[in-house]
Amino acid sequence: MARFSVVAMMRESSDIVRRFVDYYQALGASEIFIYFNGPPDEIPLIPGAIRTNCDADLWARHSDLPLETLEDRMRICYRDCHPRCTTGWLLVCDADEFVFSDRSLGALLDTVPDEVDSVGFPTAEAVWGPGDDLDEPFGSTYFRVPWPRDMQWRLLRRPIYGSVSALMRSGLLGHTAGKHMIRTDRSYTLVGGHRTMRGDEVVTKPASGLSKLWAGTYVGHFDAIGLARWERKWTFRLQKEVVASGMGRLRREQMEMVGEALARGEARALFRSFYELSSVQYHALSLLGHAFRRENFFERASAVAPEVRWTEPRLQTTPTPS
Predict the structure, then answer these.
(1) How far apart are CA 312 and CA 308, in angstroms?
(2) Where would I find the H helices in the chain?
(3) How far apart are the two ends of the chain, measured CA to CA in Å?
(4) What is the predicted pLDDT for the residue at 236?
(5) Where are the domains of the chain?
(6) How far apart (Å, rounded) are the C-alpha atoms in residues 292 and 96?
(7) Average pLDDT rounded to a whole number, residues 42-56
(8) pLDDT value, residue 232
(9) Higher pLDDT, 31 or 310
(10) Span 94-134, pLDDT tens digits
């Protein structure tokens, strides 16, 4: 099977980094590159991770690139990692993103035509639903996926989501752009968070358009790992410790609402309205093909091809910048 590596820039607690490394090791990753974007002594070294501290030496090696925003730093990390990678493929993702499928990722990569340089996966956003414990980090076993038809979204968004729908893009609160993998034996002009370019050409192709074998392959985005981490993430951004220039209007409006809720001590209520589905909501979304449940998410990571246990909607989504 094709061998692949993983790269992520992150500033997370050691338990979240450990979960990330354990998951991708179980999925079959040969190398897991962690670029730690915080004080080096903030967490210990994590076994199984190839760690690089995001320090002055790293930035100096890539002084031809800007270093102002979170996205700038990520692009430097991906560029730095590319020549270090010893496998045929490199997955670019974040600490809260986990590619999943009911087929072996390595075996799927073997089916990619040689002329395809990069493959992209659509987003499935993790949320809490009936039977989930809202107070358990990573306790969300339900996933919602982007609505592919704009007219349907405009007609049904308020009946299903109410006022929260005004903050959503195609049914998601986080990014709808998905994530991607690149072949490492080729050169690129830019390796970004959601797509890769050579000159003015986007070379990332949606995996779902390559073969039916890729149906059911997503990047699971745990936009809200848990209440405490969610508050911490937004606090960093509100205090400008993390400058995410790629945030669109809807994401900035979310940030404003989070800031107001934190100031009033109402963060939990807002968190529930954002990321908890009622039975009625889930029933409606699943009937429309826009949500499904995947229990025992992390235990199901496997380098071999398990038996297909469930089916879900097949989306023809092309990654676009968030």
Answers:
(1) 11
(2) 14-27, 56-61, 70-81, 105-109, 150-161, 227-238, 249-264, 267-275, 279-288
(3) 32
(4) 82
(5) 4-300
(6) 19
(7) 95
(8) 87
(9) 31
(10) 999 999 998 999 999 999 999 999 999 999 999 999 999 99
The candidate with the shortest Cα–Cα distance to 225, out of 107, 321, 94, is 94
Helices and strands of the chain, counted as H and E runs? 9, 15
What is the distance between the alpha carbons of residues 257 and 267, in angstroms, rounded to a whole number?
9
Q: 């994401």: which residue's tokens?
A: 251
**Alpha-carbon distance 296 to 274, whole Å?**
22
DSSP category for residue 243? -
Assess contact for 69 and 245: CB atoms under 8 A. Answer: yes
The pLDDT tens digits of the residues spanning 279-309 come to 999 999 999 999 999 999 999 999 986 533 3
Fill in the DSSP letter of residue 111: T
Burial of 154 (0-12, 13-18, 19+ CB in 10 A): exposed
297 within 8 A of 139, measured Cβ to Cβ: no
d(CA 171, CA 157): 8
Contact status, residue 296 vs residue 272, Cβ threshold 8 Å: no
Given a contact cutoff of 8 angstroms between Cβ atoms, the answer to whether 181 and 91 are in contact is: yes
Please tell me whether the overall predicted TM-score, pTM, comes out greater than 0.85 for this model: yes
Q: For strand 218-221 and strand 291-293, is the pairing parallel, antiparallel, or unpaired?
A: unpaired
Query: Which residue bears the tokens 């940030």?
Result: 255
Compute the average pLDDT of residues 183-203. 97
